[in-house]
Amino acid sequence: MAKLTREEVLNLARLARLHLSEDEIVGFQNEISTILGYVEQLHDVDLGKLKPTYQVTGLTNATRADKVVDYRQTQTELLKNVPQTESGQIKVRRML
Questions:
Q1: Does residue 62 have a pLDDT over 90?
Q2: Strands 85-86 vs 89-90: parallel, antiparallel or unpaired
Q3: Quick one: which of 23, 26, 37, 71 could link to 1 by a disulfide (CB 3.0–4.6 Å)?
Q4: Angle formed by the axes of helices 22-41 and 6-15, to 10°?
Protein backbone atom coordinates (compact mmCIF):
# COMPACT_ATOMS: atom_id res chain seq x y z
CA MET A 1 0.00 0.00 0.00
CA ALA A 2 1.27 3.45 -0.93
CA LYS A 3 1.85 5.54 2.18
CA LEU A 4 1.60 9.28 1.60
CA THR A 5 4.08 11.48 3.35
CA ARG A 6 3.17 14.58 5.30
CA GLU A 7 4.75 16.75 2.59
CA GLU A 8 2.63 15.12 -0.13
CA VAL A 9 -0.56 15.78 1.83
CA LEU A 10 0.50 19.39 2.37
CA ASN A 11 1.23 19.73 -1.34
CA LEU A 12 -2.24 18.37 -2.21
CA ALA A 13 -3.79 20.75 0.32
CA ARG A 14 -1.88 23.65 -1.21
CA LEU A 15 -3.07 22.72 -4.71
CA ALA A 16 -6.66 22.49 -3.42
CA ARG A 17 -6.15 25.74 -1.46
CA LEU A 18 -7.03 24.07 1.81
CA HIS A 19 -5.70 25.03 5.22
CA LEU A 20 -5.34 21.88 7.29
CA SER A 21 -4.70 21.39 10.99
CA GLU A 22 -2.21 18.80 12.22
CA ASP A 23 -5.01 16.35 13.01
CA GLU A 24 -6.47 16.77 9.52
CA ILE A 25 -3.06 16.22 7.93
CA VAL A 26 -2.64 12.90 9.76
CA GLY A 27 -6.25 11.90 8.99
CA PHE A 28 -5.95 12.69 5.29
CA GLN A 29 -2.57 10.97 5.16
CA ASN A 30 -4.23 7.72 6.31
CA GLU A 31 -7.43 8.14 4.25
CA ILE A 32 -5.71 8.99 0.97
CA SER A 33 -3.20 6.18 1.47
CA THR A 34 -6.08 3.74 1.92
CA ILE A 35 -7.78 5.03 -1.24
CA LEU A 36 -4.54 4.69 -3.21
CA GLY A 37 -4.25 1.13 -1.93
CA TYR A 38 -7.63 0.30 -3.45
CA VAL A 39 -6.59 1.92 -6.73
CA GLU A 40 -3.40 -0.19 -6.77
CA GLN A 41 -5.56 -3.33 -6.63
CA LEU A 42 -6.91 -2.41 -10.08
CA HIS A 43 -3.47 -3.04 -11.59
CA ASP A 44 -3.83 -6.74 -10.76
CA VAL A 45 -7.13 -7.19 -12.63
CA ASP A 46 -6.82 -9.12 -15.91
CA LEU A 47 -8.74 -7.24 -18.61
CA GLY A 48 -7.37 -9.17 -21.57
CA LYS A 49 -10.55 -11.15 -22.29
CA LEU A 50 -12.94 -8.22 -21.99
CA LYS A 51 -14.31 -6.40 -25.00
CA PRO A 52 -14.46 -2.61 -24.85
CA THR A 53 -17.95 -1.30 -24.09
CA TYR A 54 -18.66 1.54 -26.49
CA GLN A 55 -22.46 1.30 -26.40
CA VAL A 56 -24.44 -0.41 -23.66
CA THR A 57 -28.05 0.15 -24.74
CA GLY A 58 -27.89 -1.54 -28.16
CA LEU A 59 -29.42 1.50 -29.85
CA THR A 60 -28.13 2.74 -33.18
CA ASN A 61 -28.31 6.17 -34.71
CA ALA A 62 -31.19 6.70 -37.12
CA THR A 63 -29.96 9.03 -39.82
CA ARG A 64 -31.33 10.09 -43.15
CA ALA A 65 -29.63 11.19 -46.31
CA ASP A 66 -29.27 14.92 -46.82
CA LYS A 67 -31.38 16.28 -49.65
CA VAL A 68 -31.04 19.65 -51.29
CA VAL A 69 -34.45 21.32 -51.37
CA ASP A 70 -35.04 24.04 -53.96
CA TYR A 71 -37.78 26.37 -52.73
CA ARG A 72 -37.57 28.39 -55.97
CA GLN A 73 -37.15 31.68 -54.14
CA THR A 74 -34.33 34.08 -54.80
CA GLN A 75 -32.58 36.11 -52.16
CA THR A 76 -34.08 39.36 -53.43
CA GLU A 77 -37.61 37.90 -53.34
CA LEU A 78 -37.13 36.77 -49.76
CA LEU A 79 -35.70 40.13 -48.65
CA LYS A 80 -38.35 42.32 -50.29
CA ASN A 81 -40.62 42.17 -47.19
CA VAL A 82 -37.82 42.98 -44.70
CA PRO A 83 -37.82 46.54 -43.30
CA GLN A 84 -34.07 47.12 -43.80
CA THR A 85 -31.33 45.29 -45.68
CA GLU A 86 -27.64 45.87 -46.12
CA SER A 87 -25.36 43.96 -48.51
CA GLY A 88 -28.02 41.30 -49.09
CA GLN A 89 -28.58 40.67 -45.39
CA ILE A 90 -31.28 41.65 -42.89
CA LYS A 91 -30.23 44.76 -40.96
CA VAL A 92 -31.27 44.95 -37.31
CA ARG A 93 -30.54 47.31 -34.45
CA ARG A 94 -27.49 46.72 -32.34
CA MET A 95 -28.22 44.22 -29.55
CA LEU A 96 -25.61 45.29 -26.98
A1: no
A2: antiparallel
A3: 37
A4: 100
